[in-house]
Amino acid sequence: MNDRRHLLVLVVLVLVVCAPMVRFGLPDWGNDSTFQALMTKDFATQWWGGEIYPRWLSGLNGGYGAASFFFYPSFSRFAVVWLEPVVGSWDASGFYLAGVSALLAMVFAAWAAYYWCRSFAEPEAALFGAVIYTIQPYHLAVDLYTRGALSEMWANVWPPLILLSVFRLARGSSLAFVGLSVSYGCLILNHLPTTVCFSIVPVVAAIYFAPAGRRIPAVLRAGMAMTLGIALAATYLAPAMLDQQKANLDWYRADPFFHYARWWLFQWQPLYDSRTRLMLLIVATLSFVLPCFWLAWRSERVADRRRQLLFQGGLLLYSLIMATKLSRPLWEALPTLRELQFPTRFLEVFMVAVAGIAALGWPYLRQRRARSLALVSAVSILVWVAATVWAASMAFGEWRPFQAEERARRLRIRRSGCEHLPRTAPQQFCEDSAIERIQREYPPRVPMLETLQGRRLERPVVESWKPREIVLRLNAVEAGLLTVNHFYYADWTARVENSDKELRISATKPYGFIHVHVPAGTYRLYLTLRQAGPERVGNRISLASVAGLVLLSALLWRNRTGKCAGP
User: Fold this and answer.
1) pTM value?
2) Coil, strand, or helix at residue 302?
3) At residue 76, what are phi and psi to the nearest 5 degrees?
4) Cα–Cα distance between 320 and 173 in angstroms, integer?
């Protein structure tokens, strides 16, 4: 009964700290909020239009399209597609839909932290740890209200469940294998950078928590479970890793703004800089967690809890080292780390460690002799609250009417992330003003037909326009060139009805629109964005992995119940 009450308390806490989102949805002035909301809206709309896994979002970039979900994880969108028929008529931009997704992520992250802390602490202490996990400034003030980082919000759900599964797996639980596979696969499906930051932790935890003499089997089981998690996520992971040459991800990597050396934690910046504010928030978090660690280490006598505390302290130290210049040799030596771009992404691991230490320190914070340290921790939490209130006050357009015109322009242009543009699209589509200018000259989705000599022919009729299939009726008196003002992507194909022969298709210059050499005649032309090899293979691997996991779960559960029924 205590657990149910505590879970309800956490739901109420999330509704309180996210009260503006209950009314307005995802903060529309977060760094990534507009992209997140528009992608969520288009994803849900296309899903209800019949696509099982929308990847090409044809409504972004003012209607020119974007390859967003070939490279961006989609779990946070699947979580709320069911809500689109309810709110779709008045939530044209997707902010409320994305806001509900963020609220669900907050609730599930709080519950996950509670069950994880419950594995090594009393119910009240576990509740305290889950509360701390929920209200930490990097989680609430930074990820939610400042950045609108929807995928990272969902990524916070899985690390506590991964640690819980590893702990039980190391102690001999067979079903924990399934839990680790699913939670690790879900982490990949939510946020790949957080996965990279966290992936060493389950392996270390398996070694650390396994009894002596069983560490190698524990590591092998953990490695196999994580491998199965990778296979579960292959439907996203295969195209995201293998099709990068089809998009403009190189722009993203080459931009000096995203160079990792610019984002070290604890390097001095101008006082008004966001990096300085983040540093101060982490200092405030350390001023909370270090007294908790000291009190628990000095007072705890239960060997398992001291061991757990030492692990959490190591996790805290690992995350801080990787987020600061102390880890610079690793960043320079490992290309995979440089792909993260922000060393501060390791603060996702930091948050988990803070919550665990808070749960272990809770019984000792309440002691009379710890009043001075408890006061320091309480003041730190008040600083967190103040930072969150300030961040929330700056996050919503309803409270910033002086910027209403800029907000309207963002929503009208519907620009995607630059890295999601097809490789043949020019970099000027990263600028809002350029998109508006090009839209006026080349209205999106309009087909034009010309002869090979450049003479304009009768305009084709659009019979059907779906995200991955466009049907046009052409009346070409002679062979010509068809241009459709929609981005060309490497897997678009063109064919005439009742023919399997593919026509020559390419990208126009300089804007990268669809360009097809068409024959003379009156016919229907089918433009199809086919599934390329990585997408097909990823889908098959994921389906096979899900089937295998279901079968494995049934066998493990049967063995478990069989043992329970024995003498």
Assistant:
1) 0.93
2) coil
3) -65, -20
4) 32
